[in-house]
Automatic annotation (TrEMBL):
Protein name: Lipopolysaccharide core heptose(I) kinase RfaP
Molecular-function annotations in GO: kinase activity
Gene3D superfamilies: Transferase(Phosphotransferase) domain 1
Example GO biological process: lipopolysaccharide biosynthetic process
Amino acid sequence: MFYLNEEFAQSFDGADPFKTLRAMEGNIYRQFNSRKTFQFSLNGKSYFAKLHTGVGWAEIFKNILQFRLPIVSAGNEWRAIHRLQEIDIATLNPVAYGSRGINPACRESFIITEELCNTISLEDFCKSWKQDPPDPRLRRQLIKEIARISKTLHRNGVCHRDYYLCHFLLHKDQISVIKLSLIDLHRALVKTKLARRWIIKDIAGLYYSSMNLGLTKRDLLRFVRHYSASGLRMSLTRDKVLWQRVEQRAQGMYENLGPSI
């Protein structure tokens, strides 16, 4: 499957997109054995490209033996982005995608998205909160919006799987009216309905990444209230086991990995 918007179709002009992207010069952000992420410019606009090469059967079997879902192409991120757009969660804007090869161990793929300009990750935006607390109203607004996004994701069968503050981008020109975009969806899980363990994984990751921000118990309860349709008291009673497991998992991450900020 291939998709190129009009601008990239004209730029590539019938050339092999894989060869064209491999030959491009840009700022490399991440590079692994089977995946490369880099930033480049085209016609005065900035884009990010992710190139996936075959992960190999060894990597696939390793993930399966560890009860993990192997990611073998950019198709996972392509589908997740479109799912978020369907449920009205701000995310990346994909402009090109391609995949070739039947064998999952050696499948090649790419995805290109527009750069989200004038944004800052919540990790960077919030990292000084413990020493320099923000305006309480801003903190409440952010907690409410993150809870709304989390609730919308999970009720629509989406688990991010790397659900940390660094993957929320705050649009700096809209701080008075909070707008957050969720990025880095290459491992996202899209199902009809999520099992509870996936919800615990996401919320625990989010909680872990915010542990050093000086959040109060009231802040945490505010998240629970906005996340839960049934209200705070009912959620703490009905979903007691869920929140206990979120707490246990997040604390375990903190003990094993140390602070994320």
